[in-house]
Amino acid sequence: MSIELRVPQLPESVSDATILSWHKQPGESVKQDETLVDLETDKVVLEVPAPQDGILKEIRFKEGETVEAEDILALMEAGSVSDTTPSSQSETSADETEDSPVLSPAVRRLVNESGIDPNTIKGSGKSGRIVKADVEAAIAAQPAQQASQPEQSTPAQAAPAPAHPDGRIEQRVPMTRLRKRVAERLIEAQQTAAILTTFNEVNLQAVSNLRATYRDTFEKRHDVRLGFMSFFVKATVEALKQFPIVNATMDGDDILYHGYFDIGIAVSSPRGLVVPILRDADQLSFAAIEQRIREYGEKAKQGSLSYDDLTGGTFSITNGGVFGSMLSTPILNPPQSAILGMHSIQQRPVVEKGEIVARPMMYLALSYDHRIIDGRDAVQFLVTIKQLLEDPSRLLLEI
Predict the structure, then answer these.
(1) Is the pTM of this model over 0.85?
(2) Considering 1, 77, 107, 203, which has the largest number of Cβ atoms within 10 A of its Cβ?
């Protein structure tokens, strides 16, 4: 019996997808729920599994082609598949044997391009799962002569490097859909919003003292590290309560005030910058915030963030400090009206009670849409965050 493998229903507002990679070729046997093809959308990678055991007979769309919901991707011939069939024994992909570890689409592609056996890689992700950084480290550890081979070092989708008389090399690599979408949204933000940025600095000594005092107890109790981000999320939520205009968005000629606090946390992934959402952040404890952020970070590395994880948000926080940034002007994440930028924590001299002392200081930046947010509200919002972080007890008392 012939079975049609169709593009699944795409998330709302996503009109099409791109064929990222096929994991089987015509004539090969497949098992039920085995991933056959990865589809890349503007935000996430969708894995399309086999509906049942059988043989892949025909592929209708090649890698790089665009498809829409319900398009027929391939045809399968249904039937039971033995584990010892020649087709299954002849498979050569490093990630397709039963004993191989489970790999995300991005990691799987890197493994196949590099030719590294994933069984030789020790995973640093949750439950020992292999993440992209593990594969990159394994590639770097290979002998120099192997690493220098063109077929291993050149990305599969990159155009061949042209020869130049002067010996200089250029390489053309197509932008991913995510990178294209990020570029579109950044241009949209700059062209449609009146973006202004205000700055301040915060003394994180009190937060550092709290973390040092309760870090071990917190980790034992909740099985997660007590980081700085949970303090910033809590402070942001309290400031948004005091200045609801910062949590609002423009809707035509109206201002839409949100009575909830869905905070986007910008994280880096192998595919680019993504902003998963902490929904109802005002109802989350410090531990719950840290756990959600850790989960999102792991899912971002593994390429397993869902569309729901990335949809919505009323305010965003981005932390350039993890990359060493001292100061920056973050760009709005439309349709949101403001974004908080965190930066590196540096020991700097400050005056306290007439004496110069060294304190862990961070520059803060708030970019906002001046069309609906006045400078006074933006400045006072940022000052409120500063006050809450410099006296964290205010977070418990909500004052």
Answers:
(1) no
(2) 107
